[in-house]
Amino acid sequence: MNHLKQIAAKLAEYDLDAMLIVSEPGERYAVGFQGEGYVLVTKTGTHYSTDGRYIEAAQKQVTGAEVALVSRERGHLALARDYIQAHGLKRVGFESGAVSVEQHRRWQESFSGVCQLIPAQRLLNGLRVSKDSQELSAMRQAQKITDAAFGEILNYIRPGLTEQEVAARLVYEMLRRGARKVSFDPIVAAGANGSMPHAVPGETVLESGMFVTMDFGCIYDGYCSDMTRPVAVGQPTEEMERVYATVLEAQKAGIAAARAGITGRELDQAARRVIEEAGYGEFFTHSFGHSLGLEIHEAPNASPSGLDVLPVGTVISAEPGIYLPGRFGVRIEDVLVLDEQGCEDLTQAPKNLIVL
């Protein structure tokens, strides 16, 4: 799967002769391959360079591009410069959000007198926000793997295990089902650790009466999944049940409001209102959701400051939470695909309070 035609079609809109892409997700999006290479997309063709570690695979897998091998004598910049000069490319866009100051300095030196470098992060971001059918197919499979891992972990969790043991088992269950790797380090937070949204799994032992919050995902064919489920180990208190029910109601309200054409702020508010009316507003400390795809966090977001309109094909998480410091926390997360009528929920794992 590559998106060279889509990128080339956008060049005129940004008054560019070419687009230089070097980030890992950008490379994957452009040519459907990751080989630590440089992609130079023009209106009439694409130049892709990689090194000896990846050249054989690139020659087999990359289509629609001229594939070149870099050497010690002629690296990525030299090959790109030659191609730019030979084709008379004067305005070359680049991923301004993914390039360091030092890297930009070296590029300017290398391309001096040959072309002008134009910040063009918005070109790629604008394309990547709306997932096509192939991208969605990969994300559905990634989520299917994640759902299955959750179903299996319910048979594994018991008092006496540590957070780290549960996290390790989640990774194993996803990998053995076909995941390429995890999309981020799993979060497993037991008891009071659950009040920290991004707690790091450690040696805390699971005990009866605790919530255990698990936030995890995997990568399949380059694309991410993401989900969060808390479960109760032993009978929860009435307050734990009330908080869980509030978060679930908030998530359902957000999902009911989710559709293409609204802003991220409107989506966030639909869920946040439920938590505020229940008296827990100060304990919902993050946004309703974030976009994901080739990366686990992409733009746009469903947040109080999210003014961008969410287009058709946006994939966004739905993850409200309530966090009571030093006591426990609850977050329930699904992944949604937006269309004009509403949304498709990719996450099929149950959301009812599970007591183990």
Explain this structure to me?
With 356 residues, the chain is of the alpha+beta class. It has 2 domains: 125 residues, 3-Layer(aba) Sandwich (Creatine Amidinohydrolase, Chain A, domain 1), CATH 3.40.350.10; 213 residues, Alpha-Beta Complex (Creatine Amidinohydrolase). The protein has a 6-stranded mixed sheet with strand order 4-3-2-1-5-6, sandwiched between helices. Strands 7-10-11 form a 3-stranded antiparallel sheet. Helix 7 crosses helix 8. The longest helix is centred in the middle third of the chain and has 21 residues. The mean pLDDT is 97.
Summarize the structure.
Helix content is 34%, strand content 22%.
Rg, please? 23 Å
Please tally the β strands and state the result.
19
Given the helix and strand composition, which structural class is it?
alpha+beta
**Distance from first to last alpha carbon:** 42 Å
Strand content: 15-25%
Overall geometry: elongated
For the biggest β-sheet, the strand order reads 4-3-2-1-5-6
- Quickly give the CATH architecture of the largest domain: Alpha-Beta Complex
The percent range for helix content is 25-40%
What key attributes describe this structure?
Creatine Amidinohydrolase, 3-stranded antiparallel β-sheet, 356 residues, single chain, alpha+beta, Creatine Amidinohydrolase, Chain A, domain 1, 6-stranded mixed β-sheet
